Amino acid sequence: MTQVFFYHGTSDRLAAACALISGAWVKRRPILIYAPDAPVADGLDRMLWTHAQLSFIPHCRANSPLASETPILIADRLDTPAQDERLMNLSRSIPPGYTRFQNLVEVVGQDEDDRLAARERVRQYKEQGCTVQYFDLTNRN
Fold it and tell me: I want to staple 108 with a disulfide (CB 3.0 to 4.6 A). Which of 45, 62, 89, 118 is the partner?
């Protein structure tokens, strides 16, 4: 069963996502980022290039020719990427086919609409038998 980790309360969702992605990369763990909204995907892509001055986080879009050899992928669809270990959801809905992943990471900002959508996802994940853990990022920004 998929384990779900909710990182909530951040004032900057993309910065928090970058920090979590960076942590995964330091441990050499692959991660697939589900970002179906183009401005979110583009913003994350830009931020990953500039996140830390002296580090490099190898990433590309899931439809890139380099995707098969890149550990961190940004995808607007989940039907083709082969990764199934760790998924980060940057949408406001439950990712399609999320149950094929061992871990699902949710990043939730302080925006009221974001929080309400996250509460609904939590309810649905629990109904589907997922274990949900919470991490408060309120004072870490």
Answer: 118
